[in-house]
Amino acid sequence: MKVRLSSRRLSRKPGAGQSGFTLIELMVAIALSLFVVSGLAILFVNLKTTFTSQDQQAQVQDSQRLAITMLTTTIQSAGYFIDPINNTQAAALPVSAVNNPDGTSFLAAQGIVGTSGTAGPAGTSDTLNVRFQTASGDGVMNCLGGSNPASAASPVVWVNSFAVNASNELTCAVNGGAAVALVGNVAQINLLYGVDTTGDGTIDTYLGASAITLANLWNNVHSAKLTVSFVNLMSSKSSAIVTLPQPWVQTISLMNNT
Q1: 3-state DSSP call for residue 116?
Q2: In angstroms, how far is CA 175 from the centroid of its own chain?
Q3: Does residue 4 register a pLDDT over 70?
Q4: Is the CB of residue 186 less than 8 Å from the CB of residue 169?
Q5: CB-hemisphere CA count at 13 Å for 144?
Q6: C-alpha span between 77 and 218 (Å, rounded)
Q7: Quick one: 185 exposed, middle or buried, by C-beta within 10 A (0-12, 13-18, 19+)?
Q8: pLDDT digits (tens, 9 = 90+) for 34-84
Q9: CB under 8 Å, gap of 24 or more: what pairs does 174-183 form?
């Protein structure tokens, strides 16, 4: 018995079983992709701008804290000397043998002196010189963090000279040495000094450095009103420095001349 196998020809339509996108569908997909990518790019740029702004703000805040802390601590120590029972301020802080970096000098017993509007990029920043005496191992530091070591055989007088340089940095030099940058983003510092012009021990006016020098009243200074202007990093350019709208203002009492 023979079995005949019959075969059937399966007919298919041309292109059957294959799928794809039409040109319109591709264009729509590309448009949607571009829209999503554009949104992500805008988000990235915004996040980067926000991060940069926050970072710049943090830098300015760090500069503010460090500059104000250093200036306040040093100004408060103006005129300090050890052993007031057996010593006098004039003996501990005699007439300075050399001029300070800004050309000023100290009279006997004088702990603070400066100039008005002679420093900084714009030539409008004040300079400041503060001196005080330290004993060996007492831990009292100068503006660069140095102190009189315990091994020292005699007291040391530290002269701390502050200024703002052309790079908008607050600098300090100790005992006439090289100026060292302490903190950046400082546009200028300005000071008014609380002065006792009548000799009754009470502050009766605030004067700038030039007026005090002219009236020979540095030994009558009891406080300092410090104004520090900081650079606005978000608005400044290399060709034009912009300062923050509100400077830091602080009044500091001279602990050793109140």
Answers
A1: strand
A2: 23
A3: no
A4: yes
A5: 18
A6: 15
A7: buried
A8: 878 887 778 777 666 665 556 556 665 666 777 888 899 999 999 999 988
A9: 174/142, 174/143, 174/144, 174/146, 176/98, 176/100, 176/101, 179/101, 180/144, 182/66, 182/67, 182/70, 182/143, 183/62, 183/63, 183/66, 183/67, 183/70
Task: Give the burial string for 80-92 (b: 16+ CB within 10 Å, else e).
Answer: bbbeeeeeebeeb
In angstroms, the CA 155 to CA 81 distance is 9
Please report the pLDDT score of residue 43 as a whole number. Answer: 75
Ordered by start, the domain boundaries in the chain are: 52-253
- Taking the CA atoms of residue 196, residue 187, residue 157 and residue 87 in that order, the dihedral angle to the nearest 10 degrees is 20
Gap between the Cα atoms of 255 and 258, Å rounded: 6
Closest CA to 164 of 254, 247, 81: 247
Reported confidence tier of residue 143, pLDDT bands at 50, 70, 90: very high
Q: Rounded to whole angstroms, how far apart are CA atoms 141 and 186?
A: 22
Q: Are 241 and 166 in contact (CB under 8 A)?
A: no
Residue with tokens 């990093």: 233
Alpha helices by DSSP H, 77-178: 89-92
Q: Looking at the predicted structure, is the pLDDT value of residue 24 above 60?
A: yes
Q: Which residue has the tokens 């290399």?
A: 238
Residue that is written with structure tokens 């601590």 in the block: 73
